[in-house]
UniProtKB/TrEMBL annotation:
InterPro entries: NUDIX_hydrolase-like_dom_sf, NUDIX_hydrolase_dom. Residues 11-160 form the Nudix hydrolase domain. It comes from the Bacteria. This is Putative nudix hydrolase. It comes from Candidatus Protochlamydia naegleriophila. The keyword Membrane does not apply. Its cofactor is Mg(2+). Keywords: Hydrolase. SUPFAM superfamilies: Nudix. The keyword Hydrolase applies. PROSITE patterns: NUDIX.
Amino acid sequence: MNSLTTTLPVSYEVGEKYFNYRTCGIALNDGRVLAVKISPYDFWLFPGGRVEFMESSQVALEREIKEELKIPCRVERPLWIVEDFYSFENQKVHELGYYYLIDFPSNKEIYEKKEEWSVYEEEKINERAKTLTFRWLPLNHLESVDLRPGYIKTRLSALPDNTEHLIIDSK
């Protein structure tokens, strides 16, 4: 297999429209969920990233978590498969998202973190290197936090027993 085919994210732009294939990890601990803020933006996301060509969403999530947090995760099970249509930065976005329940069995110290912590990445956003800021957010205070996508944060208190397929159109 050509190595180039495994290093290109499955995302592309057509005019003012953007398609993104994303995978995310939902890590829960002691009434909290792990979230990340990516500079220069001022909102929180679930950790993860883009799936690359010839890569499964689960393998992509394991890779992204290792790149971002510098530790491995264990993917427990899929929670949601989401077809999401929304607007962001003057673009209409069509995002296919896989959300998995994850944990960190080989690094229990991550669960003890009480404050925000940051990781610097060379990958650039708007010509600037990005900083990833991680934080455990209390589930009982999420209504006052800009955690995206919002339709997932409302589902965290009662995780589904089986994988749910959601179609969200907020564009």
